[in-house]
Design goal:
Length: about 400
């Protein structure tokens, strides 16, 4: 109980009502806390004052730190290296016991929908057939979310999972590209058709036989030319295509990290600029006393309010109170944008090369099949002819 009270005092600073209950009917003794999230003094909600911005910067994220400090203080154990794992719902924990988490199930189901989709709109329509609930809104920054229908049935309060959480290849733009890529692979079949001349009609008509032989020889000749168009073997082309695609995929992680850093700086810079814009009003206000201070607050209430908002935002963005120089941050942002553009161009070139090599490999593979079918047909036709003779 005392540890729970210390935790609440550190987190809520005696500004919020709360009820603390200690559970001793389990092997692990633990606390439950119910909070009235209206601040005694300001009348604002806890979410408004302390729980805005990115998740790692929110007040709730301080719980683990405060709890660990109190546990060390009282000689209790803590979770070591919490950053190496993340919390799981009971549903996900149950599936993990079967070596198949719900996220893995969801990703596998999405992969199957991609294989049978004509385009992105068709993908969205077919998700339901594969037991996937989908929420797509192109106007939102987080435009695509998924959930297994079975998961919703087990837990009606379950929330959708952002596509980005599942991985880079499950975001809306990447799903579009994957559908097009898979359609190309499936549709790229040999255009040459070997005519089977073992049928009775070819044996009975020499003219028809001669026509079929000419068409088959044309197809075989074309396939042979395509096979010789590249000096590389099929195995070499496939290996080169895989290497290019692997390099493309490996570059996705640092580029995603760089993108996140860019977004963070794009949020930090306006916040610092706003703080600099209004900090002079706050300094002037704190330098005054008595009626002059009261009058100044009345005359510049908007500017002082904007200063407090800006200051609060800086605390959220820089919890360590280390605020970089604006000029340095802008230079860093400019460089990050340049690096991102260069990485994008490099990844685009790698993907283009991987696609080119894949097409060459597929063409050589199809040509080999055409020649194999031509040889099989010729051998079968000879056997048929010898039987008739």
């Amino acid at each position: 109980m005392l540890i729970g009270q210390e935790l609440c005092k550190a987190l809520f600073n005696d500004e919020y009502q709360y009820v603390l209950a200690v559970h001793v009917d389990h092997e692990h003794i633990h606390n439950h806390v119910i909070v009235n999230n209206i601040n005694f003094y300001t009348g604002k909600t806890f979410e408004t004052e302390h729980n805005q911005g990115k998740i790692p910067d929110r007040a709730w994220s301080k719980l683990r730190t405060i709890s660990d400090e109190l546990c060390r203080k009282h000689g209790l154990s803590i979770i070591e290296n919490p950053h190496l794992s993340k919390g799981k719902s009971h549903w996900e924990w149950e599936l993990d016991k079967q070596n198949l988490s719900w996220k893995e199930q969801l990703k596998r189901a999405i992969d199957e929908v991609i294989k049978v989709s004509e385009d992105f709109e068709d993908f969205l329509a077919k998700c339901a057939d594969f037991g996937i609930l989908v929420d797509y809104n192109p106007d939102h920054k987080i435009d695509l979310k998924f959930m297994l229908a079975e998961q919703k049935e087990r837990n009606p309060r379950a929330k959708f999972t952002r596509a980005k959480t599942l991985g880079y290849f499950y975001e809306s733009q990447q799903i579009r590209k994957r559908i097009e890529s898979y359609k190309y692979q499936m549709s790229h079949r040999p255009t040459a058709r070997i005519i089977r001349t073992t049928a009775e009609k070819f044996q009975q008509s020499q003219g028809l036989q001669n026509w079929a032989d000419r068409e088959n020889m044309k197809a075989a000749s074309k396939a042979l030319n395509e096979m010789n168009a590249s000096n590389s073997t099929l195995e070499e082309l496939e290996s080169a295509a895989h290497r290019a695609l692997a390099e493309f995929m490996v570059m996705s992680t640092p580029q995603i990290e760089l993108s996140a850093r860019i977004h963070k700086m794009e949020e930090q810079i306006p916040a610092i600029e706003k703080y600099h814009e209004f900090v002079a009003y706050h300094k002037k206000y704190t330098s005054l006393e008595g009626k002059a201070k009261t009058k100044y607050k009345s005359d510049f209430c908007y500017e002082l309010d904007e200063y407090h908002k800006a200051y609060k935002k800086l605390i959220e963005l820089f919890p360590d109170a280390h605020i970089p120089k604006l000029s340095k941050l802008k230079t860093e942002l400019e460089k990050a944008r340049t690096d991102y553009a260069e990485q994008s161009a490099e990844r685009k070139a790698l993907k283009k090369e991987a696609d080119r090599l894949s097409r060459l490999a597929q063409q050589k593979r199809d040509s080999q099949r055409t020649l194999a079918r031509y040889i099989q047909n010729e051998q079968a036709a000879k056997r048929k002819k010898s039987q008739l003779e």
